[in-house]
C-alpha cells in the first residue's frame, strides 16, 4: 500500500494533468456495490445499479444479454459502455471487472453485505473479489470521459465470473464485443493470489490455465460378502486419484509449475454390493505449452500404467461449448500496456510495481488466451477472499483507479 502521495508530493493520485479520482466518492461507490448482494446467477440488482450509475454520468451504457439455456438455464446481463476516441486507427483498451461474488458464506459474524469500514479496510462478501476492482474501473472510466483520447476505452462489467463457466466474459468474446480491443486490464485482486510473494502496487502479467477431468470408472458388481468376484470401481478410482496426484506436470519460467488436485470420488450406494461405477473429478492447473489434449494423454497414460481391471473413460467437465476453456497465457513485459501501467504506477505511488503471475484462473484467461489480448491484472488487495471476514484495503482501491486512468491516457493519448 502507498502513502497516497505522488511524485510532486500531492495527495490522492497522479502528478501533473493526468486524471484523478475522488477518494471519498470512490469509497462511497465501493460501499454501495458491497451492500448489494450479488452471488453468481443473482446479479440483476447490481447490474441495474452499475447501469444507472453510468447512465447518470452520461456514458450511454448498454445491457449485453447473457443466456445459457442448456446446462445452467441462466439468463443475465453484462453492462457495457464505451468512450470513443478521435482516431479510428488508435488502440482500444478494455477495462473488465465482474459484478458477481461467491455464494454468501454462512460463517460471517456480521452482515456479509455491511460495507463496514474500519482501519482502512472495507468488509463484505466480494469486497476484495472483486467489487474493489469494479469500483476502481468505474471511477477510472468516469474520469477518462474528461479527456480527449485518440483511442477508445471499453468498460465491461460482467456476470458469472465466480460461477462454473464464466458466462459473462465468454459471451463478450462469443458475440464479438471485444473484437476491436487491443489490450485488456482486469482489476482482480492480484498479490494475494499470485504465484510469488509480492505486494501492491503490482502488475500480474499472466496466469496458469485450468482443465477439469471428469473420469468414469466402470467395474463389475458383485455381492459385498465376496468382493473378489467383482471389480470395485471406487477402489480403482482411488488408485487412479492417487496416481494422478503424483503426475509429473509442466513448468514455465514465469508461471511456475502446474498442479493436480483430485477433488471428488462418487460411486457406490447399495449395502452389500461391490460398486460397479465411480466418477472421479480432478483439477488440473496447466502452464503455457500444455494443451487439453496433452492433459488427456497424461491421464490416459496413467491409466495404462496402472493396468486397472476397470474400464476407464478420461473426459472433461461438461461445458456449454467445447471452447469454454481456461487456457494459460503470458503478457510480454515490453508490451506498451505494461509500459504504460509501469510508468503510471511510478507516477501514482512513487515506486516501481512488482511483477507477478496469477496462480489460478478467471476471466483474464478468456481474454489473454481465447481472445488473444495482452492482458494485465492490476487490482486492490485484501484478505479472506471467498470467506467470512473478507475485506479490501480502501486506499488501494483509490490507487488502482488512479493507475488505470493514468495508464489509459498514456496508452491512448
Automatic annotation (TrEMBL):
The keyword Repressor does not apply. Keywords: Hydrolase, Metal-binding, Zinc. Gene3D superfamilies: 3.30.70.360, Zn peptidases. Its cofactor is Zn(2+). Residues 206-308 form the Peptidase M20 dimerisation domain. Pfam families: M20_dimer, Peptidase_M20. InterPro entries: ArgE/DapE_CS, Bact_exopeptidase_dim_dom, Peptidase_M20, Peptidase_M20_dimer, Peptidase_M20A. Residues 1-25 are annotated as: Disordered. GO terms for molecular function: hydrolase activity; metal ion binding. The keyword Hydrolase applies. Belongs to the peptidase M20A family. This is Deacylase. It comes from Haloferax profundi.
Amino acid at each position: 500500500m502507498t502513502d497516497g502521495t505522488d511524485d510532486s508530493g500531492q495527495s490522492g493520485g497522479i502528478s501533473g494533468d493526468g486524471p484523478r479520482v475522488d477518494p471519498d466518492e470512490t469509497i462511497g461507490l465501493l460501499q454501495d456495490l458491497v451492500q448489494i448482494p450479488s452471488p453468481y446467477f443473482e446479479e440483476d440488482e447490481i447490474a441495474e445499479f452499475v447501469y444507472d450509475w453510468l447512465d447518470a454520468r452520461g456514458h450511454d451504457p448498454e445491457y449485453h444479454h447473457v443466456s445459457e439455456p442448456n446446462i445452467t438455464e441462466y439468463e443475465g446481463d453484462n453492462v457495457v459502455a464505451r468512450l470513443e476516441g478521435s482516431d479510428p486507427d488508435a488502440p482500444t483498451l478494455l477495462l473488465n471487472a465482474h459484478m458477481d461474488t461467491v455464494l454468501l458464506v454462512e460463517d460471517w459474524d456480521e452482515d456479509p453485505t455491511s460495507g463496514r469500514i474500519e482501519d482502512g479496510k472495507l468488509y463484505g462478501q466480494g469486497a476484495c473479489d472483486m467489487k474493489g476492482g469494479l469500483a476502481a474501473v468505474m471511477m477510472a472510466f468516469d474520469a477518462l470521459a474528461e479527456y480527449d483520447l485518440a483511442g477508445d476505452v471499453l468498460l465491461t462489467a460482467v456476470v458469472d465470473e465466480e460461477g462454473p463457466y464464466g458466462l459473462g466474459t465468454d459471451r463478450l468474446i462469443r458475440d464479438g464485443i471485444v473484437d476491436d480491443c487491443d489490450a485488456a486490464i482486469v482489476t482482480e485482486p492480484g498479490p494475494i493470489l499470485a504465484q510469488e510473494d509480492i505486494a501492491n502496487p503490482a502488475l500480474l502479467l499472466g496466469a496458469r490455465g485450468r482443465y477439469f477431468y471428469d473420469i468414469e470408472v466402470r467395474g463389475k458388481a458383485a455381492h459385498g460378502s465376496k468382493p473378489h468376484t467383482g471389480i470395485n470401481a471406487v477402489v480403482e478410482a482411488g488408485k487412479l486419484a492417487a496416481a494422478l496426484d503424483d503426475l509429473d506436470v509442466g513448468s514455465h519460467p514465469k508461471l511456475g509449475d502446474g498442479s493436480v488436485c483430485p477433488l471428488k470420488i462418487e460411486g457406490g450406494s447399495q449395502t452389500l454390493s461391490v460398486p460397479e461405477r465411480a466418477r472421479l473429478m480432478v483439477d488440473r492447473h496447466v502452464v503455457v505449452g500444455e494443451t487439453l489434449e496433452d492433459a488427456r494423454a497424461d491421464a490416459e497414460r496413467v491409466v495404462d500404467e496402472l493396468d486397472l481391471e476397470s474400464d476407464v473413460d478420461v473426459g472433461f467437465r461438461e461445458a456449454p461449448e467445447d471452447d469454454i476453456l481456461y487456457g494459460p497465457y503470458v503478457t510480454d513485459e515490453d508490451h506498451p500496456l505494461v509500459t504504460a501501467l509501469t510508468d503510471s504506477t511510478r507516477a501514482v505511488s512513487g515506486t516501481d510495481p512488482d511483477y507477478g503471475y496469477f496462480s489460478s484462473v478467471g476471466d483474464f484467461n478468456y481474454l489473454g488466451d481465447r481472445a488473444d489480448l495482452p492482458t494485465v491484472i492490476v487490482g486492490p488487495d485484501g484478505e479472506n477472499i471467498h470467506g467470512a471476514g473478507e475485506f479490501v484495503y480502501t486506499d488501494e482501491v483509490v490507487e488502482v483507479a488512479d493507475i488505470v486512468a493514468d495508464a489509459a491516457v498514456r496508452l491512448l493519448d
